[in-house]
Predict the structure.
Amino acid sequence: MKLQAMDAAAYARDVLPLTAELWAGDRSYDLYVQHVNAIARCGYGRRHYRTIGLYDGDRLVSSFKRYERVLRAGSTKRLRAVGIGAVYTPPAFRGRGYASAMLAMELDRSRAQGCDLAYLFSDIRPQFYLDLGFVEMPSHSMSLRADTLTTARVEVARLQESDWTGVQRCFELGERQRPWGFARTPLVWEMVRLRIKQGSQYPGTLETNLVVRRGRAIAAYVLGVRMPAHDAYVLDEFGFADAAAANLIPPLLRSAAGDLRRVTGWLPPDFARDRIARASVRRRAKAIFMAAPLTPAAKNWVALAAASKDGVWSSDHI
């Protein structure tokens, strides 16, 4: 058996027809393929993203997506992280241990290449990943009634292309208040923006990204989608430029929800959590954040992070 990188054409031909039922949502098959290929072709995709197959002889028996990221732990420590997504074994080859072998081989290879940890978001069978050495990290969702949010009068605008530089600045200011988080280089921001534009995480929704401007600068922003079928605005992330601008987050969320009853989403990281203090919180049933330490430095980080609160924005989901 061997691990082998698959180019976009091979992945589209051999894997996507099988996974469309699981992950295409309400997209047509052609649009599903187009979205996957767009990630592979973007700047981040060319440098830090691969589709990998496990081959038993010449048969493709399992596959996954590999994302390279950097995790910031403290003000100076940087850990090389490998994200694992879309693990899939065709029905004809299930029950033979192929996925376990594939991921074990990838963990060994990543460790040999100097990576510090692997991570993923498990939708089913977390025990499968626990058996491979992954540790379950805090993963919660939140929900609050939109009418409990402050209704201060602010001038809200839809996010424009020219606003992204200000959004990134707000994000970085917030990250300085956190003990750890996934670093966002310009290439990572390119992928985040592309995935937001594709809207593939939330089929049948309306992208609703709002900002409050302070002159030409961005004072605060929220990223998310309106989901009328669930009477909710689903929040991906928010950011603000300073303590005064933090008070803009509740009215921004209220504006994003509009006539929808609830604001839902992943529980924000600790520094931002008190902006939505009235939210009810529960453990997520899907997208459970898990990490496998590959070096002593990563083991130290996992022990600390696993004992703390949620630390991942849903816009970093893979």
Observations:
- The first strand starts at residue 2 and ends at 6.
- Residues 2-139+284-316 form a domain with the Aminopeptidase fold (CATH 3.40.630.30).
- The CA atoms of residues 71 and 182 lie 4 Å apart.
